[in-house]
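In this section we walk through a basic example: taking a raw amino acid sequence and producing a predicted 3D structure, encoded as discrete structure tokens. The instruction is simple. Fold the sequence below.
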Amino acid sequence: MIPPRFASTVVLVRPARSGGFEVLLTRRPPGMRFLGGFYVFPGGTVHADDYSAKVLKRCRGLSGDDARKILGNEHDPELASGHWIACVRELFEEVGVLLCSDEAGAAVDLRDEATKKRIELERQAVARKELEFSSFLDNENLYCDLSRIVYFDHWVTPEIYSMRFDTRFYLASLPPDQTALRFSEEVTDSVWIRPEDALARTYDRDFPLIPPTTTVLGNLARLGSWDRLRTKYFLP
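The resulting token sequence is shown next.
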């Protein structure tokens, strides 16, 4: 039996005009070994660097002990925190969204074009493994705002598969004044879509989806409205 690797997946959400809400789905490059060509939520493996001392000192909003309790006391506090930090890093690498705050606790403001361009260049360097995520945080004097990320589900790849993941699912709201990249090094396309509309395309050859993505979409679709989503999961 192949032991599963720890992973984090983040369902990024935003309100829709109808009173409902949309989720961000990204399409993986077809050449990727795992789920190549499929639409998925952003995320990936939890790396040791995600819970290094250098990164942990750049985190706010959730203690390691609280993270450990939320995950059922299955990990030590550092690794538990690493699951949340992986969400921040992966969301930044894949679609350029930053769940971070500055030293004063204010949300990151990317409306300034010079700042936006500088951070995008750093994102590209992080994605290419030329710049450590911790060094990026130091460079910009930013802190991962773990309070923005809400844990809500847990999936483990069945034993019959040769590549397995022990994946925690999280919810996060798109921060104000930020937009997600349409494509990047690890994304060939991204789309904002209502969960019910995504499910209606389950059998569309141009919109391939598989569980657990479809299951998560189904659970979210039943909530219907942005207000019910925020109330149920205490989204900030």
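Looking at the output, two observations stand out. The first helix runs from residue 53 to 56. The first strand starts at residue 5 and ends at 15. In the next section we compare this with other chains.
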